[in-house]
TrEMBL record:
The chain crosses the membrane at residues 33-53, 62-83, 95-116, 136-154, 180-200, 221-248, 268-292, 341-358. This is NADH:quinone oxidoreductase/Mrp antiporter transmembrane domain-containing protein. The keyword Transmembrane helix applies. It is a multi-pass membrane protein. Residues 30-170 form the NADH:quinone oxidoreductase/Mrp antiporter transmembrane domain. Its main location: membrane. GO terms for cellular component: plasma membrane. It comes from the Bacteria. It comes from Halolactibacillus alkaliphilus. It is found in: Cell membrane; Membrane.
């Protein structure tokens, strides 16, 4: 994502000190590409969160949420490209969310690992009540969950708020169709909340499984690492620090309109009535999705095995194709090993031929 962002930024910066004809051509191209990228981001968000909701294994759910969260970033990059010189909000949101995702997702994977190492269980539906046996893991896990779902005063709230403002700008300064993208943005955020309500409640809350009553939490360097990550997630209570020290100065070094940077990003008020009330909507919808999903058993709907490329149905095919590829590679390796003299001789002949032609 950072590479893609740098690519679009480089294209925008290429207009510096260039003719108006060149600049107009670049901006029109970015607008067309950006429109496509925004919808690719929205689709990625939706597909990722739907598949994540259907998972039973903790790590698989987190992995699909990485897909969904990268959809947020793609959408932000798309807005940055679509609005051209006025796309500083998309740039800031995408960069901020990449940083935040690295923090709360790393901690979530560490929590999943801590649970697995103690229980040897990957399926969240077979756990429960682990807050008693693993209080520290439950505490930092809750912090990570609040971060990824965008709870106010945690780091995810800041970057998701910026991205929300970015998609609003895309229809205020661009095409009104992006208002539907905003609705989808809110729905995906609610789906994310539902996913992690499910994850946390199934793993740490409820009745304890008798099988894991013997589990005892241990502490070490891993504990310290988890505590450090949790600390930076909680630092989300001061969202302007990262903005003022890093992101806004970075935006000023680029070709974005200074008016948009100073008036929309500078001294941005995150904890306002609109954004805070928006999170009430997100969490309310998230609770509703979770309740409906659990009541009607909607979180266990799976494709027929013939349509699921990860099912055991395709294992024999993968094994046979893997063996065929391995045999082919072994033959190539054997040929190279046995043909050193031939290869060196051929290279020497080519070099001599080139030298003769040069002379």
């Amino acid at each position: 994502m950072y590479g893609i962002l740098r690519l679009f930024v480089s294209v925008i910066n290429s207009t510096d000190k260039k003719s108006s004809i060149h600049t107009d051509a670049v901006i029109i191209t970015l607008e067309n590409v950006g429109m496509i990228v925004i919808w690719l981001g929205i689709i990625t968000m939706i597909v990722g969160v739907i598949v994540a909701l259907e998972q039973e294994k903790i790590v698989r759910m987190l992995a699909y949420h990485s897909v969904s969260q990268m959809g947020y970033v793609i959408m932000g990059i798309g807005v940055a490209a679509y609005l051209g010189f006025e796309g500083a909000m998309g740039f800031a949101g995408a960069l901020y969310h990449m940083i935040n995702h690295g923090l709360f997702k790393a901690l979530l994977f560490m929590v999943a690992a801590a649970v697995f190492f103690k229980t040897k269980e990957k399926n969240m539906y077979r756990l429960g009540g682990l807050y008693k046996q693993m209080p520290f893991t439950a505490a930092v896990g809750l912090i990570a969950v609040l971060g990824i779902t965008g709870m106010p005063f945690f780091n995810g709230f800041a970057s998701k708020s910026i991205l929300h403002h970015a998609i609003i700008e895309s229809y205020e300064y661009g095409h009104p169709v992006f208002r539907y993208a905003e609705y989808m943005f809110t729905l995906v955020s609610a789906g994310t909340a539902a996913s992690f309500i499910k994850l946390y409640s199934k793993v740490f809350l409820g009745y304890s499984n008798d099988k894991y009553r013997h589990v005892k939490e241990t502490y070490g360097f891993g504990t310290l690492a988890m505590a450090i990550l949790a600390f930076f997630i909680i630092i989300g209570i001061f969202p302007n620090v990262l903005m003022d020290l890093f992101i806004i100065p970075a935006a000023h070094q680029l070709s974005y309109d200074n008016y948009f940077i100073n008036n929309y990003l500078g001294d941005m008020t995150f904890f306002n009535v609109v954004d805070l009330s928006g999170m009430i909507t997100v969490y309310g919808l998230g609770l509703l999705i979770y309740w409906v999903g659990m009541k009607y058993n909607l979180f266990h709907l799976h494709l027929p095995k013939q349509f699921d490329p990860e099912s055991d149905f395709y294992t024999p095919i993968y094994e046979k194709s893997g063996q065929s590829i391995k045999r082919a590679l072994d033959m190539i390796e054997q040929f190279i090993s046995n043909s050193d003299v031939f290869i060196y001789g051929t290279m020497l002949l080519v070099i001599i031929t080139l030298l003769l032609n040069y002379v």
